[in-house]
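User: structure tokens for this one?
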Amino acid sequence: MRLSVPLPGLAVLGLAAALLAPAPLRAATQPDAPDWPCVQRLVPELSAGTVWQGPPIDQALDEWRTDPEVVELVNEIAPRRVPVETAEATAARFITADPAEQEKRASLLFAGLFDTLNQERGEVIAGLERLTRRQREFVRAIEADAARLRTLQKDPDAEPAAVQELTNRVTWQTRIFEERRRTIRYVCEVPVQIEKRLFVLGRAMQGALQQDGSD
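Assistant:
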């Protein structure tokens, strides 16, 4: 008897191709980033000048870790779980606490934030690219199992239990693929969120400097 077991989830293979092959926009603009899965353009590292117009931080990037107070403050306000309004107020209080050292304090604090969040952003990007490579390998495994399943379905002597077992496996694999695909879509927003957080904090710190200087 020829079995005809449905292949639930096999349409995901089409979605996989859409995800894992570079989209037209990405292919046109970033041919050197084949593992980047996001619609957002890949910028591997941020430039401080795009998020900070305050005092220079070149030297501060080498020095901020030597100041325990700055290190503690960076660890306190850099995490994205901390509301940005809270982080803004804390940073402004730190900068204005010593009128004679405001620019130095601003440089050190923003250098620490930039260093920390830019590194976190890079780790997120690397994780997305690793996940894309794993997804690509996973799709190949699903395709191989789906091909075996189609062969079994055409075999009149195939054991029903074997067909059902392979069907369940393909179904489970495609569910995992879909969960990972949703995760990628969500995580693609994180580098943008980090960049936005740096910009907002930098703007607040610059505002604290300008406001105090105008008094």
